[in-house]
Specification:
The chain has 749 residues and is α/β, with parallel strands linked by helices. It is built from 30 helices and 22 strands. The strands form 4 sheets. The chain has an 8-stranded mixed β-barrel with strand order 13-14-16-17-18-19-20-21, surrounded by 4 helices. Strand 4 and strand 5 form a beta hairpin. Helix 3 crosses helix 8 and helix 20 runs parallel beside helix 22. The chain starts with a helix and ends in a 15-residue tail after the last helix. It binds ligand C2E and magnesium ion (2 copies). Ligand C2E binds next to strand 14, helix 20 and strand 18. This is Diguanylate cyclase DosC.
């Protein structure tokens, strides 16, 4: 702003119009004679004033405030110069409007430069003192002094007015700035005197709530009574924390009721001030944060829900489960349970029908599962094809089983999708929630039960039990020890003789290699660990070891006097599906020196099922090497006659469960007879497993079965034992039917 405008504004602000100036003069009793009187003495005071100006500044320089302003020599010079001019004008006039304007301008410049009023007035007093002494020198000219005082006081009123007008303007400017900022921030403001409980709120504060400020009371109740009851305790706490100095400022979000009854999310910010008498007041702002809260809520919802099904996700479950567990601690709380659901063979749907179709299935599944629940129960999608259900308020935990069964039934209903009819199933693990459980424990328990349901054949539910847990621990331990067993050379092979039982004598024709794990002092049977090896994939390397070990051992025995002894080795499907299994087998045969025709590979029906084309190709290649293939445990699986024709099989091993029933159990006897007959008519060699008694042997002979193995002849033996009993002295052991192993005293340790 130019100084002319600033001056005009100042004149206007003080109201210095002609009339006002006139009035001020009258108040001071100013007469035209006063002007004449001063004008007449103007020349004679000139030199006094010059000397005085020097002294004035010397005096002022003794005070730090003014001293800092006049430290610069050129400024000082300028100031002294304008001071001189000022004094000249004081005596000379003319005392017109221009005089007033020039006085105001000087006041304005002084005020802007930071010259304080008190210095100005002190300078005046010094000036009068000087003039009085110098000019009148003991002979006071009363009239002149009176005129001088009038002029000086006129100037002083102008100076004081300039200063206070400038201060008022600064205050107004700052208020206007503040009001502008508030309007821009769109915030309401409040000021609460705690001692008197007087609350001031701005118009905007009230308008945010659709209220009129004047209709609000003046106590804090008009604020706090509108706060959402759930949010009030925390707000009071935040205010208290700030008042007592525990938080640097009040910063709290809460909901407040609007005139229409809706709640608005606001942020209150404020700071407390304590006055000299110890009274506190807090003042601050109120901002409407509803838009941010809405977005936060949306994000919160999105983070906790599955976009495909709209169900809660794992994060949501992480919130619900601890709540449910907490509830169980309340007295009179009813039971609660957790269900872990996993669709059976869902991968197959995804892989064969595509992910879109898979998604549709998941949506339908979530719909069906939801229908099986009561309000208050929760269904979450845990991930992929896994769902978790939280059942609360159950009369007894068995009710959870009913819900699980309902779910299984509902899922099993045919599902029509894109012109196809699908039948899906799921497995469910159930665990009853215990108040002492951690969320993780409950989930693990349900998961373990789910695993049990899957193991037991899928499409069913299973309940968690302590036993399951113990077993899982055991399996875990087993698996970690098992993974190192091969490297630690802990596997051993035992061999069970396979005998030719034609006529009345028996003769060893082969051995079946059976794997054992020497774990410390215990010899672990294969059924306890083969499945684990298959799960981990270690069966491939272990199976490789078995094959080479068995071939080498049998070759040794061939060279030791049993040239036609054949070697039977059990295979796992993972081995068969292994890339270049045939190549690896040829290598093993070559290294051991065993003829391919002396090797029998035993496979089970389930292996033939796994991937029949690939399996078929491998089996054909094996057969063309000259290796013979035996179908193990025949009768216990699908017993499909189709396999017998389709695959290049040479031997059928009748499972011991049939032989054990013969001849007293008519049904088992009939089945045994049928299997043996079937094998023979297809031109397969039939080997009977599990011959434990003399009548078993008689029965087999009567059926024309030529080969057998079982405890009656020998338990599986270590290589050394078998060597002693069957290779080194073959005539003693292998050709009589009476020298059988005792069932009561197993030879295997
Ligand atoms: P399998 O191939 O059917 O082997 C015969 C099983 O019956 C052996 O059990 C054997 O000890 C047992 N056995 C033989 N005669 C009698 C008898 O008169 N009465 C009774 N009650 N049992 C008899 P083992 O050694 O415990 O092996 C169990 C299964 O483990 C084997 O059944 C085979 O499927 C699997 N297995 C063994 N070694 C291997 C291996 O090296 N690789 C693979 N993949 N599986 C193996
Ligand atoms: Mg076998
Ligand atoms: Mg078998």
């Amino acid at each position: 702003m130019g100084s002319a405008t600033a001056l005009d504004e100042l004149i206007q602000r003080i109201g210095l119009n002609r009339q006002e100036i006139h009035q001020r003069r009258n108040l001071l009793d100013w007469q035209s004679s006063d002007a004449d009187c001063l004008n007449a003495a103007a020349d004679s005071v000139s030199s006094i004033q010059q000397a005085f100006t020097e002294r004035l500044y010397q005096h002022l320089e003794r005070f730090p405030g003014p001293a800092s302003l006049i430290s610069n020599a050129s400024t000082l010079q300028r100031l002294k110069h304008s001071q001189q001019a000022y004094y000249q004008r004081l005596w000379r006039g003319p005392y017109d409007a221009d005089y007033v304007a020039s006085r105001l301008r000087i006041g304005l410049v002084h005020q802007l430069a930071g010259i304080e009023l008190k210095w100005y007035l002190a300078g005046y007093r010094l000036y009068l003192d000087e003039i009085l002494t110098a000019l009148f020198d003991g002979h006071p000219n009363q009239a002149m002094y009176a005129s001088l005082l009038k002029a000086v006081f006129f100037d002083m009123t102008l100076a004081i007015d300039t200063y206070s007008a400038a201060q008022r303007k600064a205050l107004e400017d700052s208020e206007a700035r503040f009001a502008r900022a508030l309007r821009g921030a769109n915030d309401g403001v409040w000021d609460w005197h705690l001692g008197h409980d007087r609350l001031y709120v701005s118009t905007r504060w009230a308008a945010m709530l659709g209220l009129d400020r004047d209709s609000l009371g003046e106590s804090s109740a008009s604020w706090l009574n509108r706060v959402h009851p759930d949010d009030l305790p925390a707000l009071r706490q935040a205010i208290e924390a700030h008042r007592s100095g525990n938080s640097p400022l009040l910063h709290h979000e809460y909901r407040i009721r609007c005139s229409n009854g809706d709640y608005l999310w606001v942020l209150a910010r404020g700071v407390v001030e304590t006055d000299a008498s110890g009274q506190q007041r807090i003042a601050g702002s109120q901002s409407d944060i509803s838009a941010r809260k809405a977005i936060e809520q949306q994000l919160l919802h999105a983070a906790r829900h599955d976009p495909l099904t709209g169900l809660g996700n794992r994060l949501r479950l992480d919130e619900l489960l601890p709540q449910a567990l907490q509830q169980l601690n309340h007295s009179g709380a009813r039971e609660a349970a957790l269900l872990f659901i996993d669709l059976d063979r869902f991968k197959l749907i995804n892989d064969s029908l595509g992910h879109n179709c898979g998604d549709q299935v998941l949506i339908e599944v979530s719909r069906r599962l939801t229908h099986c629940l009561r309000p208050g129960d929760h269904l979450c999608r845990f991930g992929g094809d896994e769902f978790v259900v939280l059942l609360t308020d159950l009369a007894c935990t068995e009710d959870a089983e009913q819900v699980a069964q309902r779910m299984l039934d509902s899922l099993h209903l045919p599902l029509h999708l894109a012109g196809q009819t699908l039948v899906i199933s799921a497995s469910i693990g159930i665990t009853a929630l215990q108040p002492s459980d951690a969320s993780q424990d409950a989930l693990q328990a349900a998961d373990l039960a789910l695993y049990q349901a899957k193991q037991a054949g899928k499409a069913q539910f299973a309940r968690f039990s302590e036993e399951l847990q113990v077993n899982a621990h055991y399996q875990l331990e087993l698996q970690s020890a098992l993974s190192q067993a091969l490297a630690r050379d802990e596997f051993v092979l035992h061999f069970q003789p396979i005998l030719c039982i034609e006529q009345h004598s028996t003769r060893i024709v082969g051995v079946e290699a059976l794997l054992r794990w020497q774990r410390g002092t215990t010899l672990v049977p294969p059924l306890d660990f083969i499945a684990s090896l298959e799960d981990s994939g270690d069966i491939v390397s272990v199976g490789d070891w078995v094959l080479s070990q068995a071939c080498r051992q049998v070759r040794t025995w061939q060279l030791a006097g049993q040239p036609h002894l054949h070697c039977a080795v059990n295979l796992s499907s993972r081995q068969l599906l292994q890339e270049n299994f045939v190549g690896r087998l040829s290598e093993i045969l070559h290294d051991s020196g065993l003829a391919a025709t002396d090797l029998i590979l035993e496979i089970t029906e389930s292996q033939l099922l796994e991937d029949s084309t690939a399996t078929l190709i491998t089996l054909r290649a094996l057969a063309s090497l000259g290796v013979r293939l035996a179908l193990d445990d025949f009768g216990t699986g699908y017993s499909s006659l189709g396999y017998l024709k389709r695959f290049p099989l040479h031997i059928l091993k009748v499972d011991r469960s049939f032989i054990s029933g013969a001849p007293e159990n008519a049904e088992l006897t009939a089945i045994s007879r049928a299997i043996i007959g079937l094998g023979q008519s297809l031109g397969l060699e039939v080997v009977a497993e599990g011959v434990e008694r003399a009548d078993h042997l008689d029965f087999l002979r009567a059926q024309g079965c030529h080969m057998a193995q079982g405890y009656w002849f020998s338990r599986p033996l270590s290589a050394t034992e078998l060597h002693h009993q069957f290779i080194a002295a073959p005539d003693e052991r292998c050709t009589t039917s009476t020298s059988h192993a005792s069932l009561e005293e197993p030879t295997e340790q």
